[in-house]
Write a structure and sequence with these properties.
The protein has seven helices and no strands. The chain is mainly α. InterPro entries: Asn/Gln_tRNA_amidoTrase-B-like, GatB_Yqey_C_2, YqeY/Aim41, YqeY/Aim41_N.
Length: 145
């Protein structure tokens, strides 16, 4: 299970005295623990992936602000966090693969521009954890014209 892998890597980072990596992995572990306490159930791999995706999204947003402020230290910190977290995600889909899936969905459902929500509802479960969700909306808009 992904949860155990993260815990094992966190312990290995502690033994190696890699404080930066320990910090990133503890953030994920805290999210996992919070979920399990709040929901009173053991988290699934999908749940762990959602927590990792959330952390990656927050890191990317922070990176944008750091780049605007030209804060080299925060940029390096953000890039390191992404390096640590990305390997825990499933194999990523390419834009071409997602575009092909979207074309298939649109063709099979005879969707129009007003059916954006229906298309998004259909594609999201297929790409969850495998593609940056923020890129899907513009892709759908470009296909619908």
């Amino acid at each position: 299970m992904l949860k155990e892998l993260i815990k094992k890597d966190e312990i290995a980072a502690m033994k190696a005295r890699d404080k930066a990596k320990v910090s990133v992995l503890r953030l994920v572990s805290a999210g996992i623990k919070a979920f399990e306490v709040n929901e009173r159930e053991t988290i699934s791999d999908e749940g762990v992936i959602k927590i990792i995706e959330k952390n990656i999204k927050q890191t990317r947003e922070a990176l944008e602000y750091a780049k605007q402020a030209n804060n080299e230290e925060k940029i390096a910190e953000g890039n390191f966090t992404l390096e640590v977290l990305t390997p825990y995600l499933p194999e990523q889909l390419s834009e071409e693969e997602v575009m092909g899936m979207l074309k298939e969905i649109i063709a099979s459902g005879n969707y129009t521009a007003s059916d954006m929500g229906k298309i998004m509802k259909e594609i999201m479960p297929k790409v969850s954890g495998k593609f940056d969700r923020s890129k899907i909306n513009p892709m759908v808009k470009s296909l619908l014209g």
